């Protein structure tokens, strides 16, 4: 059983929603799963979920690929914190793409269906990939032209995860990393998941829902985070 808590973003108003959903095995139709920073045209199936991950070269033309040199890693969501050893860590965290030379770098996720709802999930693990041992990196995320989230990385071995529910306004959804002058933007994983039309009615063409936090209640011991 999983609990989701979302914040409605519409102008200056913020409203919190909570929902409960029993987990079902999903189809991967219309999934977009990007392992940022892996080799051009590479792809693989995740050993746990069997979801296919692809390289990001077909979704963006800028940026530099890096491999993490960290020997240990941990997971941090907006609220929940849980630690894993790097040897058993999910494959998607081993690489990332960095954007040192651009003010605005956009992934164009497509194809999507116009007016359909989607969850967009972005994950960030610094891991001192650049050798600078930065204690604070901040940059913004936009969905298309709209502000989504400020990413504030303060721990090298922490995974920061952000989600938003949007309605596609065309045949693509853009996720943009914005350099605000407080560190080089980077990204480890970017995912898009389709939703049923009757889910989250508060999300529409004029407003979106930002995930506040998620609780996976009663999972099996040793199970991986929900993906």
From TrEMBL:
InterPro entries per the UniProt record, alphabetical: Malectin-like_Carb-bd_dom
Region forming the signal peptide: 1-22
Localization per Swiss-Prot or TrEMBL: Membrane
Domain of life: Eukaryota
Transmembrane intervals: none
Domain spans labelled Malectin-like: 34-219
GO cellular component: membrane
Keyword flag Cytoplasm: no
Membrane topology recorded in Swiss-Prot or TrEMBL: Single-pass membrane protein
Swiss-Prot/TrEMBL keywords: Signal
PANTHER family assigned to the protein according to its UniProt record, in alphabetical order: OS01G0810800 PROTEIN, OS07G0107800 PROTEIN-RELATED
Protein name: Malectin-like domain-containing protein
């Amino acid at each position: 059983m999983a609990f989701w808590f979302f914040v409605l973003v519409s102008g200056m108003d913020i409203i919190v929603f909570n929902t409960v959903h029993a987990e079902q095995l999903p189809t991967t139709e219309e999934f977009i799963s990007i392992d940022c920073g892996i080799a051009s045209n590479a792809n693989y199936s995740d050993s746990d979920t069997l979801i296919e991950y692809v390289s990001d070269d077909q979704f963006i033309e800028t940026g530099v690929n890096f491999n993490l040199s960290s020997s240990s890693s941990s997971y941090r969501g907006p609220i929940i914190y849980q630690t894993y050893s790097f040897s058993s860590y999910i494959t998607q965290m081993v690489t990332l793409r960095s954007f040192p030379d651009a003010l605005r770098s956009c992934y164009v996720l497509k194809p999507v269906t116009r007016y359909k709802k989607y969850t967009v999930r972005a994950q960030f693990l610094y891991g001192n990939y650049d050798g600078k041992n930065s204690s604070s990196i901040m940059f913004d995320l936009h969905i298309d032209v709209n502000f989504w989230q400020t990413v504030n990385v303060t721990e090298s071995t922490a995974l920061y995860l952000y989600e938003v529910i949007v309605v596609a306004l065309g045949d693509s959804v853009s996720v943009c990393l914005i350099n605000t002058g407080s560190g080089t933007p980077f990204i480890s994983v970017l995912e898009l998941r389709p939703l049923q039309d009757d889910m989250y009615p508060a999300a529409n063409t004029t407003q979106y829902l930002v995930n506040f936090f998620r609780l996976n209640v009663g999972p099996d011991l040793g199970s991986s985070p929900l993906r």
